[in-house]
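Section 3.1: Structural characterization of target chains.
Under the original work plan, the team committed to producing a structural model for every single-chain target entering the pipeline before any wet-lab resources were allocated. The record below documents one such target. The sequence was received from the expression subgroup and is listed exactly as submitted; it comprises 212 residues.
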Amino acid sequence: MRDNFNRQLDELNREMTDMGALCESAIEDAVKALLRRDKNAAKSVAAIEEEINRAERDIESLCLKLLLRQQPVAADLRAVSSALKMITDMERIGDQAADIAEIVRHTDFDDSFDNEHIKKMADGVSKMVTESVDAFVERDLDAARDVMRRDDDIDRWFKESCAELAEYIGANPQKAASALDLMMTAKYLERIGDHAVNVAEWVEFSVTGEHR
Protein backbone atom coordinates (compact mmCIF):
# COMPACT_ATOMS: atom_id res chain seq x y z
CA MET A 1 0.00 0.00 0.00
CA ARG A 2 2.75 2.44 0.96
CA ASP A 3 4.77 1.65 -2.17
CA ASN A 4 1.74 2.43 -4.32
CA PHE A 5 1.19 5.70 -2.50
CA ASN A 6 4.84 6.69 -2.97
CA ARG A 7 4.59 5.99 -6.71
CA GLN A 8 1.53 8.19 -6.98
CA LEU A 9 3.21 10.89 -4.93
CA ASP A 10 6.18 10.76 -7.30
CA GLU A 11 3.74 11.12 -10.20
CA LEU A 12 2.19 14.14 -8.46
CA ASN A 13 5.62 15.73 -8.09
CA ARG A 14 6.38 15.18 -11.78
CA GLU A 15 3.08 16.67 -12.87
CA MET A 16 3.54 19.66 -10.57
CA THR A 17 7.00 20.25 -12.05
CA ASP A 18 5.61 20.01 -15.58
CA MET A 19 2.82 22.48 -14.77
CA GLY A 20 5.37 24.86 -13.26
CA ALA A 21 7.43 24.64 -16.46
CA LEU A 22 4.34 25.46 -18.51
CA CYS A 23 3.71 28.53 -16.35
CA GLU A 24 7.30 29.63 -16.86
CA SER A 25 6.95 29.19 -20.64
CA ALA A 26 3.72 31.18 -20.70
CA ILE A 27 5.34 34.08 -18.84
CA GLU A 28 8.48 34.05 -20.98
CA ASP A 29 6.56 33.86 -24.28
CA ALA A 30 4.16 36.64 -23.26
CA VAL A 31 7.01 38.94 -22.22
CA LYS A 32 9.05 38.16 -25.34
CA ALA A 33 6.05 39.08 -27.44
CA LEU A 34 5.70 42.30 -25.45
CA LEU A 35 9.34 43.34 -25.73
CA ARG A 36 9.58 42.43 -29.42
CA ARG A 37 6.13 43.89 -30.20
CA ASP A 38 5.36 40.56 -31.87
CA LYS A 39 1.61 40.10 -32.19
CA ASN A 40 1.94 36.69 -33.85
CA ALA A 41 4.17 35.36 -31.08
CA ALA A 42 1.58 36.48 -28.53
CA LYS A 43 -0.91 34.01 -30.02
CA SER A 44 1.16 31.03 -28.83
CA VAL A 45 0.48 31.88 -25.19
CA ALA A 46 -3.20 30.90 -25.53
CA ALA A 47 -2.15 27.34 -26.44
CA ILE A 48 0.14 27.14 -23.41
CA GLU A 49 -2.68 28.42 -21.21
CA GLU A 50 -4.86 25.55 -22.43
CA GLU A 51 -2.11 23.09 -21.49
CA ILE A 52 -1.94 24.67 -18.03
CA ASN A 53 -5.70 24.28 -17.65
CA ARG A 54 -5.46 20.60 -18.62
CA ALA A 55 -2.60 20.10 -16.18
CA GLU A 56 -4.69 21.62 -13.41
CA ARG A 57 -7.54 19.18 -14.10
CA ASP A 58 -5.18 16.19 -14.27
CA ILE A 59 -3.44 17.08 -11.00
CA GLU A 60 -6.74 17.76 -9.28
CA SER A 61 -7.95 14.31 -10.34
CA LEU A 62 -4.76 12.66 -9.09
CA CYS A 63 -4.96 14.48 -5.75
CA LEU A 64 -8.56 13.42 -5.22
CA LYS A 65 -7.64 9.81 -5.97
CA LEU A 66 -4.83 10.00 -3.42
CA LEU A 67 -7.15 11.47 -0.81
CA LEU A 68 -10.00 9.02 -1.38
CA ARG A 69 -8.08 5.80 -2.00
CA GLN A 70 -4.97 6.22 0.11
CA GLN A 71 -6.42 8.34 2.93
CA PRO A 72 -3.06 9.94 3.77
CA VAL A 73 -2.38 11.44 7.17
CA ALA A 74 -0.02 14.05 8.66
CA ALA A 75 2.72 15.25 6.26
CA ASP A 76 1.38 13.22 3.33
CA LEU A 77 -2.07 14.74 3.74
CA ARG A 78 -0.56 18.23 3.90
CA ALA A 79 1.43 17.60 0.72
CA VAL A 80 -1.61 16.50 -1.28
CA SER A 81 -3.90 19.21 0.06
CA SER A 82 -1.20 21.83 -0.58
CA ALA A 83 -0.87 20.68 -4.19
CA LEU A 84 -4.62 21.18 -4.64
CA LYS A 85 -4.26 24.77 -3.42
CA MET A 86 -1.12 25.45 -5.44
CA ILE A 87 -2.58 24.47 -8.80
CA THR A 88 -5.28 27.11 -8.42
CA ASP A 89 -2.62 29.81 -8.18
CA MET A 90 -0.65 28.24 -11.03
CA GLU A 91 -3.73 28.23 -13.26
CA ARG A 92 -4.20 31.92 -12.53
CA ILE A 93 -0.58 32.55 -13.46
CA GLY A 94 -1.38 31.06 -16.86
CA ASP A 95 -4.44 33.31 -17.13
CA GLN A 96 -2.41 36.43 -16.40
CA ALA A 97 0.32 35.51 -18.87
CA ALA A 98 -2.44 35.09 -21.45
CA ASP A 99 -3.83 38.49 -20.46
CA ILE A 100 -0.43 40.07 -21.16
CA ALA A 101 -0.32 38.35 -24.55
CA GLU A 102 -3.82 39.61 -25.34
CA ILE A 103 -2.75 43.18 -24.59
CA VAL A 104 0.23 42.76 -26.93
CA ARG A 105 -2.07 41.57 -29.72
CA HIS A 106 -4.27 44.65 -29.52
CA THR A 107 -1.88 47.47 -28.60
CA ASP A 108 0.63 49.47 -30.63
CA PHE A 109 3.33 50.26 -28.10
CA ASP A 110 5.80 53.11 -28.31
CA ASP A 111 9.31 51.69 -28.70
CA SER A 112 10.86 54.76 -27.09
CA PHE A 113 9.76 53.76 -23.57
CA ASP A 114 12.38 52.05 -21.39
CA ASN A 115 11.04 48.65 -20.27
CA GLU A 116 13.89 47.86 -17.88
CA HIS A 117 11.74 47.45 -14.76
CA ILE A 118 9.22 45.30 -16.62
CA LYS A 119 12.07 43.09 -17.84
CA LYS A 120 13.27 42.71 -14.24
CA MET A 121 9.77 41.88 -13.05
CA ALA A 122 9.28 39.27 -15.77
CA ASP A 123 12.59 37.56 -15.03
CA GLY A 124 11.94 37.73 -11.29
CA VAL A 125 8.42 36.29 -11.29
CA SER A 126 9.36 33.55 -13.75
CA LYS A 127 12.10 32.35 -11.40
CA MET A 128 9.80 32.65 -8.39
CA VAL A 129 7.20 30.40 -10.01
CA THR A 130 9.73 27.73 -10.95
CA GLU A 131 11.54 27.83 -7.62
CA SER A 132 8.35 27.68 -5.56
CA VAL A 133 7.25 24.51 -7.36
CA ASP A 134 10.74 23.02 -7.04
CA ALA A 135 10.59 23.82 -3.32
CA PHE A 136 7.39 21.78 -3.09
CA VAL A 137 8.93 18.77 -4.80
CA GLU A 138 12.11 18.98 -2.72
CA ARG A 139 10.25 19.95 0.50
CA ASP A 140 12.73 22.82 0.71
CA LEU A 141 11.46 25.29 3.31
CA ASP A 142 14.38 27.70 2.89
CA ALA A 143 13.81 27.95 -0.87
CA ALA A 144 10.10 28.60 -0.33
CA ARG A 145 10.82 31.39 2.14
CA ASP A 146 13.37 32.90 -0.24
CA VAL A 147 10.60 33.15 -2.87
CA MET A 148 8.43 34.98 -0.35
CA ARG A 149 11.17 37.48 0.43
CA ARG A 150 11.85 38.23 -3.23
CA ASP A 151 8.31 39.50 -3.72
CA ASP A 152 9.51 42.79 -2.18
CA ASP A 153 11.74 43.28 -5.25
CA ILE A 154 8.78 42.71 -7.58
CA ASP A 155 6.66 45.21 -5.69
CA ARG A 156 9.44 47.79 -5.82
CA TRP A 157 9.99 47.38 -9.55
CA PHE A 158 6.24 47.61 -10.11
CA LYS A 159 6.03 50.92 -8.26
CA GLU A 160 9.06 52.27 -10.13
CA SER A 161 7.59 51.18 -13.46
CA CYS A 162 4.28 52.87 -12.68
CA ALA A 163 6.06 56.09 -11.65
CA GLU A 164 8.04 56.11 -14.89
CA LEU A 165 4.93 55.46 -16.96
CA ALA A 166 3.03 58.24 -15.19
CA GLU A 167 5.88 60.63 -16.00
CA TYR A 168 5.93 59.37 -19.58
CA ILE A 169 2.18 59.99 -19.95
CA GLY A 170 2.63 63.52 -18.63
CA ALA A 171 5.22 64.20 -21.32
CA ASN A 172 3.39 62.27 -24.07
CA PRO A 173 -0.37 62.57 -23.44
CA GLN A 174 -1.15 61.45 -26.99
CA LYS A 175 0.36 58.07 -26.12
CA ALA A 176 -1.45 57.64 -22.82
CA ALA A 177 -3.59 54.68 -23.97
CA SER A 178 -0.65 52.45 -24.91
CA ALA A 179 1.27 53.53 -21.80
CA LEU A 180 -1.68 52.52 -19.63
CA ASP A 181 -1.76 49.13 -21.36
CA LEU A 182 1.92 48.76 -20.53
CA MET A 183 1.12 49.66 -16.92
CA MET A 184 -1.49 46.90 -16.92
CA THR A 185 1.08 44.35 -18.10
CA ALA A 186 3.25 45.39 -15.15
CA LYS A 187 0.25 44.85 -12.86
CA TYR A 188 -0.28 41.36 -14.26
CA LEU A 189 3.38 40.55 -13.59
CA GLU A 190 3.03 41.85 -10.03
CA ARG A 191 0.00 39.58 -9.56
CA ILE A 192 1.97 36.62 -10.90
CA GLY A 193 4.53 37.35 -8.20
CA ASP A 194 1.76 37.30 -5.60
CA HIS A 195 0.57 33.91 -6.86
CA ALA A 196 4.13 32.56 -6.68
CA VAL A 197 4.23 33.70 -3.05
CA ASN A 198 0.94 31.90 -2.42
CA VAL A 199 2.48 28.72 -3.86
CA ALA A 200 5.52 29.15 -1.61
CA GLU A 201 3.27 29.63 1.43
CA TRP A 202 1.54 26.34 0.68
CA VAL A 203 4.97 24.72 0.46
CA GLU A 204 5.65 26.07 3.93
CA PHE A 205 2.37 24.58 5.13
CA SER A 206 3.15 21.19 3.58
CA VAL A 207 6.44 21.08 5.50
CA THR A 208 5.53 22.73 8.82
CA GLY A 209 1.75 22.45 9.12
CA GLU A 210 1.52 26.24 9.53
CA HIS A 211 0.04 28.62 6.98
CA ARG A 212 0.52 32.36 6.93
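The CA atoms of residues 63 and 80 lie 6 Å apart.
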